[in-house]
Amino acid sequence: MSRERRKRRLEEKKENSINRKVRTRKEKGYCLLVFVAMFLAVLTIAFLDAILYGFYLLFN
Question: CA angle, corner 18, sides to 16 and 24, nearest 5?
Answer without folding.
Answer: 135
